[in-house]
Amino acid sequence: MKVILVAAMIAVPGMAQAQAYRCSVPVNVPRQRPDLPSKSEPQRVLPIGGYTLAISWAPQYCHGHARDASARFECGSGNRFGFTLHGLWPDGVGKEWPQYCTSTVLLPRALVRQHLCSTPSAQLLQHEWAKHGTCMGTTPAAYFAKSTGLYARLRYPDMDALSRKPLTAGALATAMAAANPGLPATSIRVTANKQGWLDELWLCLDKSFAYERCKAGSGGLPANATLRIWRGPR
Length: 234
Prior knowledge:
alpha+beta
């Protein structure tokens, strides 16, 4: 079966430019389902006050989901990822945020395949567009071009080295900021699971997509919270 191969690039020792270390996309990818608002996730058409760029730590995700059929592409098939793109989320002006702003059809298959090495799940791509992208007054192609463009310019600290020493959420944010001139540590929120293992980084952006200080009470661990990083198989 014909595949597209994407390899990681290394800028300096320990600092990865790309986070798809190995990514092979088959011609036929899983068919996504419609993603619709629900009672627990209702439609909210609200003003946009800024944005969050969410990136996920794939080794931790695969540690908990490797047996799930929905995670086969990300966690099996010979693929290996570091940070993946969860999505670009419009934030609200107050406590609530816009979501599921308009109804939408299934994403074109070619568009899904184009972005699978950034967001390695066809269903997650459908979800991100339906829940978040439809609130941004744009097209699916333009939405994913913006989110993957922001994701592609990120650089990363040596996660292997960080995982082998005592670490706090604030120290990881500082290391991420040091790898990305122009990205302040105050623009980074670190999330973890209940056991304290790194889950995601949330980067705070203003309405022009420039980094801004994260608002108080917008989620994430305290800077002094102990953090662990799952390295995954080698």
